[in-house]
Design a protein that fits this description.
71% of the residues lie in helices and 0% in strands. It is an all-alpha fold. The longest helix has 27 residues, at 85-111. The radius of gyration is 21 Å and the shape is globular.
Amino acid sequence: MSRGHLATRWDRLNAPPRILGVDLARSLAVLGMFAAHLLWISGPVEIAEPSSWLAVVQGRSSILFAVLAGVSIGLVTGGRTPLTGDAAATARLRLVVRAFVLWILGVLLILTGVPVFVILPAYALLFLVSVPLTRLTAPTLLVLAAALALVMPFVQVVLDALPLWSMSGGYELALAIGWHYPFTTWIAFVAAGMGAARAGVTRRRVQWWLLGAGGALAAVAYGLHAASGADEQSEAMSYLGAVWTARPHSSGLLEAVGSGGFALAVLGASLLVCRTVVRWVVLPLRAVGAMPLTAYTLQLVVWAIVASAVLGDSGDLSGFRDLEPFWPLTLGTVVFCTAWALLIGRGPLETAVDRLARLTVRDASARAAAPRR
């Protein structure tokens, strides 16, 4: 293999336009979801109890994933300045194609029988819902994200209580649209990520604002949750109880504000860390974050194969967790992604989805150059 080939792969992982802190944050989201899937985690996070700190991955990893989806959408649709004209139309249509591909891939992963709520169908719907938002500027997106986070939890309780979900086919519909991560509320996280991209995530001032404002939102929301003594029983007893909670995957008001703020703080911290020499220490993690779709999918496919071979049932969650698969799958993923990034380049699924989107929706210059019939 030529030195030029390796140098190109090295530059692709470590040099602009790659944003190293975004890759690091993505890796934390992906590996956090690994932990939430594969480890026995009991109880909420308690600051005074270090043994409970691992519970931070529950719910927050997937919300970080959604915020980073928004960052990616913001970057591919112009970054600080929204695209206009043909370029904007091309970018939006490609988002639609990516959404369709992600939904198909998500359904295929659901069919493996692995007992997790696959996030990709929700991701696909969030991509679709975000398309009209790509015209907006940073202030508008951030105000919209705040408004959605404050209002939609009140609506979400009503949507979750619809008889539709308990009817025949309701559970399958919920899986197919990723209702465990309801796009109706989670679009707030995507809008926040898009707002961060529009504000300029490579700017130091923006990075500090993400860390400070996100941390403050998380502290206030989680503090209010702790002070209220809210628990699952109180949530089930009243409408306001169901809204006023930060419990993971509740889509409650305090979760939307607290976990959304937590995700923004993690993004800011990751961006700031990657301004230092630590960026070389976390290179293997950044490699995972450079191909999150591949890493996430690979985990579930390996899970399905191993569980079927060893346990005879890909849906045996307890049996699979008892095999203690977290570290082998995590370390294997990190090694695979690092080797692939340095030797081959872009992740295989990322490459496939991007090529399909570009083949399906050609840019304006390619359309103009194409022969007319």
